[in-house]
Amino acid sequence: MIEIENLRKSYAGSPVVDVPALNMPQGGVTAIIGPNGAGKSTLLSLIGRLETPGGGGVFLDGENVRSFRSTDLAKRLAMLKQDNSLTARLTVADLVAFGRFPHCNGRPTDRDRAKVSEALELVRMTELKDRFLDELSGGQRQRAFIAMVLAQDTEYALFDEPLNSLDISHAVAVMRLLHSVARTMGKTIVVVLHDLNFVARYADHVIAMKAGRVVEIAPASHAIREDLLKQLYDTDVAVSTRDGRTFVDVYG
Ligand SMILES: Nc1ncnc2c1ncn2[C@@H]1O[C@H](COP(=O)(O)OP(=O)(O)O)[C@@H](O)[C@H]1O
Ligand SMILES: [Mg+2]
């Protein structure tokens, strides 16, 4: 269970995250939604200990994430950042193997190699495993990074806008994959998403943020409502159902 208590973060005196109390839903896919600048990435980075809180803390199964040894945290929680830039010239397989580092400390066993192959297969990158990252399209590179997180094989996995640069077919494939990984392996997946139709279709829970605060946490079927979305984005939207599925239309 990921629990948040009195979590605050400011930049230059301006609060960007202010969450008095939050229990992240355990299991399934939780989507974090909200406008640009709402604090979604900062919240994820605080959970993944990539940022230091100004106050309060994040607790993983009762223990403050700041008190974990790095490798112990990396065995339990993995994170894909919003902007992945790597200067080193790596192949896809090298990158994905990094996900096993906390488990094998640089000496991969057959099990580590199997986890790398499995992750490559899951994102359909096996054929491209020997390509260098700078020889890939943006979407292929994004899938390689997703595979690295999956290879880490943690109970908790956080993804910040993982659908960036993916075409609709790969975006659907990634969302189905995250959904099935959560379902079949009992993992807790937290994902920042902008496409509200994907949220409606693939998320179990929604955390809605605006101006650094959590304005709602609810099952996705309840959160995808016109009043909440209008409040979040200051934009006219229409929510409808067809064949038992929820759709969000945006009026520009
Ligand atoms: N390193 C930083 N230094 C200063 N301000 C930052 C930094 N990172 C984020 N911010 C600011 O914090 C706010 C929240 O940013 P972010 O968490 O990235 O929002 P989101 O992911 O919801 O778009 C924004 O106003 C952003 O400009
Ligand atoms: Mg962000």
Q: Helices, strands, pairings?
A:
Blueprint: E1 2-11, E2 14-23, E3 28-33, H1 40-47, E4 55-60, E5 63-64, H2 70-76, E6 77-80, H3 92-98, H4 101-104, H5 110-122, H6 138-152, E7 156-160, H7 168-185, E8 188-192, H8 196-202, E9 205-210, E10 213-219, H9 220-223, H10 226-233, E11 237-242, E12 245-250
Parallel strand pairs: 3-8, 3-9, 6-7, 7-8
Antiparallel strand pairs: 1-2, 1-4, 4-5, 9-10, 11-12
Helix pairs in contact: 3-6, 5-6
What distance separates the N and C termini? 39 Å
State the major sheet. 6 strands, mixed
At the fourth level of CATH, the homologous superfamily is P-loop containing nucleotide triphosphate hydrolases
Broad CATH class: Alpha Beta
* Strand percentage: 25-35%
CATH architecture assignment: 3-Layer(aba) Sandwich
Radius of gyration from CA coordinates: 18 Å
Q: What characteristic shape results from the CA principal axes?
A: globular
Question: What is the tally of beta strands?
Answer: 12
- Written as H for each helix and E for each strand, in order along the chain, the element string is EEEHEEHEHHHHEHEHEEHHEE
Order of strands, widest sheet: 6-7-8-3-9-10
Domain ABC transporter: 2-236
Protein name: Ferric enterobactin transport ATP-binding protein FepC
Keywords: ATP-binding, Cell membrane, Ion transport, Iron, Iron transport, Membrane, Nucleotide-binding, Plasmid, Transport
InterPro entries: AAA+_ATPase, ABC_transporter-like_ATP-bd, ABC_transporter-like_CS, P-loop_NTPase, Siderophore_ABC-ATPase
